[in-house]
């Protein structure tokens, strides 16, 4: 069943009931200021870093779920209700939530009052605006009371959730007119504060949570709202909140609009520090005054919508499949932007406290984002590279605010270095900007160790080249892409830094998956060296990549599919020799998309084995058979119940690898079948099974062994977004950026029909028409550029052109 519908014209998903299977959320913000916003007004806000600069509180694992957010209480006589239904849960006469590109609108009716809330973050300001409109739809005059509510977080969300003995004595606020300033931490020489304001005189306020809620009460029945009178409380220690009371008189048919602004400010502290608790209000007042009029808010909202319209112009398709079009044109690109901004730091499944930005994660996210805002991709590549170690390995995660590596997580994930090659290659293919290779970038953020980015890539490549095991395959280290495949649990040096040991003295577990990466990105590294006429290095890299192909076909081929790995005792993992976990998805996808085994037939055989042994109606599982008992020699992969996560779940992230692999061997029917099974728009009809948002990808869907096969988890922040966009845009629809120009080589299912596509590439907009008179799955018979027949399928790049017309005839 469905709980809403797509409004493609407005680029919105419309939720028609607040009782969705799980909270269905949206992200507000495009640059540094962000809000997670659910369909019942749950969520939280932060500036740059969800751990270190959290503005509002959110309690994960709370009961009832999604309890705590930005609430507006309406008291109409004895009836109290919320436009977003939660937290009071008064039944509404009508409800509609529209999640759009960087904004959410909720419209509800109760009795004779209609309430509309529009929430968004303006493009270049550190604040969230909420426009609340109340309308009297009845025939008699109405007197209602409106109460706003936010609960402040004490900025460091980790400390806020643990250090109660201190924090319950530090809360500090100041109220001036209609503005509530949250200045906890300002006394400590911190240079920041938050504020919550409304553009009208208020009839009362509260800043103390206990005063607002009342003893032993929750968000669902605050005493202040029940009694209809704010207490004007000023918190001193304890838990600070922000709440305004506005008494609203409405004539029949009349509407009144109020603008609430939740903001963050940083100031230069006076060196003398004469008044430590007196904040400089100028930056807050500047934004409060800027948005005091409804017209200014409407202007900022229009600018936000134009911003997304212009971004999406970089890639637009028109086909006979409306679900494909809406995902490619709108939601997949939107999610790619969100994952670029968030990595895996802050969602309804990531608390914002632990992970920060992932080295591997952020590199992969760039693959689906780079065409949108290349200059931001460039900056991110340099940030990521600066966390790398001199030996080519890397911190697995880093904090977005400080851009420092996360020492708690450390390094040792041996796939990490090659992802830096992947995203740099994607950026240069997209932009032609080889100057990035000359940028001086520190190692481990030590400027004295700064070297050109190209040297970082060399060390990435050489780290894998030099870290080989008994079969000459790459060492896996702590793990590769599959964080739970911990094959060195019984090594001679458990828990120590993996990259410091050679094959003869330390952990020797090997990864066939990393070998596939080494082939693909080793060749792309060679291409980058050829661009800067570093031909000797290009030849060396290409030779080593070619040698790895032979190693994989020797030590990594199991007869019907690629082996996944070798454990610390040189036993095969992901082999017919294994009782459980005989076949894994990762090497089948990545080795084939790297071109391994295509000519010898192993590629086709491996993909046939995937279909036979791993496929389900909801997607391709990560492994089979599932592990039914814990295998200490394999690590965490066998710690999950069968069918969940890495133990035979459907990892949506690597389904695109298999789909891309199918395009490599020309099977468009199968490539599209795999694409469709995990694509949100195609599973909207089973939302009661799938449960997560039907407009964005999830990390995982429960596999065939799970009791709830088809149930998704971990939506929004997943590499699935970027990899699926790469799959559908570059391989199925077939418009792939090369160093020489756009390659157009679609691989589509039979019966897909003709389609048109607009692709902005560097400074040229290409209007591409693809016709398929012979109904083939793959193959380009003719290509015309501006009416002229051109050989091959790569459009020669002409920097003097701003627009070009292309016609592709498949055959």
TrEMBL record:
Alphabetically ordered keywords of this record: Glycosyltransferase, Transferase
CDD domains (alphabetical): GH94N_CBP_like
Pfam families: GH94_b-supersand, Glyco_hydro_94
Gene Ontology BP terms: carbohydrate metabolic process
Domain Glycosyl hydrolase 94 catalytic: 307-734
GO MF annotations, alphabetized: carbohydrate binding; glycosyltransferase activity
UniProt domain Glycosyl hydrolase 94 supersandwich: residue ranges: 11-293
PANTHER family found in the cross-reference section: CELLOBIONIC ACID PHOSPHORYLASE, CELLOBIONIC ACID PHOSPHORYLASE-RELATED
The protein's name in its UniProt record: Cellobiose phosphorylase
Taxonomic source organism: Eubacterium uniforme
Source lineage: Bacteria, Bacillati, Bacillota, Clostridia, Eubacteriales
